[in-house]
Amino acid sequence: MKLTENQERERIARRIRLTLISLLFLPTLAVSRHVNSSAKTGDFDGARAYEHVRQLVDIGPRPPASDGIHRAQAYIIGQLKSFGCPVEEHDFHASTVLGDLAMKNIVVKLPGRSSGIILYTTHYDTVRIPNFVGADDGGSGSGTMLELARLFCARQNSLHVWIVFFDGEEAQGNWTDGASIQWKNDNSNNTFGSREMAAQMALSGELKRLKAMILADMIGPANVRITRDTGSTRWLTNFIWDTAAQLGYKNNFANEDYAVGGDDHFSFIRRGVAGCDLIDFSVRDSYWHTPQDTLDKVDPRSLQWRVFRPVILLLTWL
Predict the structure, then answer these.
(1) With 0-12 CB in 10 A as exposed, 13-18 as middle and 19+ as buried, what is 306?
(2) Average pLDDT, integer, range 261-289
């Protein structure tokens, strides 16, 4: 008898949960048992992720088509290549209120044993506000994905794993401060990189192979507390939060709903792909989109592997 989509999903869920439970009793290095001998360490290193954030913050503001973002691109690409990752540079142009802007998505595509694709994504641009360096908003996700790439590029994966750094996530305009930023309801003035990639994957047919899209955005605050984005795919969110609870991460994955609004995961959800936004939006009324989003707002402990183990372990077994 052919299983329904929901029955198949639950069958996979049971298999993954059993795998995760068994992993809890293994030493830390067993989590990365496929890492080759050239890797210095087999585990996620929050200090390394933090150092990437520091390097990006030192560059300064990084809005699209700026000198800053060109330097950020060179840094990200250089680090990925140093890890032995196959790097693709997807250049495109975006029509904005500021004119035609050259943008670049940076993509790592790692082969898997099955045909499915899982996307781990973030954005590396910063909003165009004077003196905005985006340590948390733009930096924390990028640092985490660089460290994730170091691990994944040294291991054999069950799915095709794509790690993507999106350009042009922020609303484009010459804003004076956070209060002046305007978003359009259809996200047509932001999320340029994710919309470009989703469209290209639809044209190539690769979108049909995409199992899930995970977005890491603003994950650097001390004692990071990620709430459930109500716009994310419900079954995927439930899956991640349930697994996090089983692994003892209830404090990091709070069982509370919050509507994030326009973000890069919607570019894929609108095309029928399951997506989940990991974001700590508790900073919305403090330093978000202000020049105070500086390096001291990012805690290396929040970038540690323990926060993202539910997502990484869970989805690499799909």
Answers:
(1) middle
(2) 94
| Radius of gyration of the chain, Cα coordinates, nearest whole angstrom | 18
Using alpha carbons, select from 6, 3, 11, 20 the residue that is nearest to residue 240. Answer: 20
Q: Are strands 226-229 and 275-278 parallel, antiparallel or unpaired?
A: unpaired
Task: Give the pLDDT confidence of 224-260 residue by residue, as tens digits.
Answer: 999 999 999 999 999 888 888 887 888 889 999 999 8
DSSP one-letter string for 215-253: EE-S--STT--EEEETTS-HHHHHHHHHHHHHTT-TTTE
Whole-angstrom distance, CA of residue 211 vs CA of residue 26: 27
In whole angstroms, give the CA distance from residue 100 to residue 110.
32
CATH topology of domain 38-315: Aminopeptidase (3.40.630)
Distance (Å, rounded) from C-alpha 14 to C-alpha 194?
31
Torsion-angle region of 106 (φ positive above 0: left; ψ -120 to 50: alpha; else: beta):
beta
Q: Report whether 218 contacts 282 (CB < 8 A).
A: no
The first and second tokens of residue 309, run together, are 């183990």
The answer to whether 172 touches 189, Cβ cutoff 8 Å, is yes
The pTM assigned to this predicted structure is 0.88
Whether pLDDT at 302 is above 80: yes
User: What does DSSP assign to residue 282?
Assistant: G
C-alpha distances in Å from residue 217, one per residue of 111, 144, 179, 229: 25, 10, 20, 12
In angstroms, rounded to a whole number, what is the distance separating the alpha carbons of residues 56 and 82? Answer: 17
User: Mean pLDDT across the stretch 48-57?
Assistant: 97
User: What's the farthest any 2 CA atoms get from each other in the chain?
Assistant: 61
- Buried b / exposed e along 172-196 (16+ C-beta atoms within 10 A): bbebeebeebeeeeebebbbbbbbb
